[in-house]
Amino acid sequence: MPDDLLLRARDVSYVLAGRQILDRVSFELKPAQITTIIGPNGAGKSTLTNIVTGLITGFEGEIERRPGLRIGYLPQKVYVNTLMPLTVERLLQLTQSASEREIDHALAQTDVGYLKQRQVRALSEGELKRVLLARTTLGEPDLIVLDEPTSGVDVTGEVRMYQLIGEFRSQLQCAVLLVSHDLHLVMSQTDQVLCLNQHLCCSGLPESVSQHPEYLALFGQQAADSIAIYTHHHDHVHDVSGDHAEHQHD
Known about the structure:
Largest sheet: 6 strands, mixed
CATH topology: Rossmann fold
CATH superfamily: P-loop containing nucleotide triphosphate hydrolases
Order of helices and strands: EEEHEEHHHEHEHEEHHHEE
CATH architecture: 3-Layer(aba) Sandwich
């Protein structure tokens, strides 16, 4: 596999209970790029992320990963036992060792450092999502996989979550594989779009995908027009106040 690739999927297919979930899906993930998976409900988006992360192994085709590839993962749904006493700090240490300094830094990156000693069961949906997003950055991942990271979050929270994801790419120089329905919010900083409906309908830059016949058949011209409004070249980033700053990614 070339040095400039983190992961390569070749003809990935998956059948569950006699139903074709994925059909010969191929794509590549490169360092420090954001790839967004879009598609209708039942398109196989979550299944594909589970295959990328290694949670699903019984598939046909090939997933080739860079040796030693480190992956941070935020699933679409996280179930927390509300009867179990568990602080945010302890949650971040459950499946991996992390120093107090690393935990403080991770929580600060997602603006929730003040929640460190809070009980997880007392968190709002938006707070929990930010804590779990912080958790994906522990261990200096090469790739962060996020499956619908803003589900259950209000509009203001959605905008900030996508800002944070863009900041991760710049600050950590990691790749991001993102499943989202919020096309107009994510497309402005997405490098590659995978339009999925069991098979890979189309892929490429947001501007080109939004004009593809299969994309238009799935989402309509209005969605394509909204992407055209929000996309721009990656020559700068915005800080929290909206001012321009130097961009580290070509």
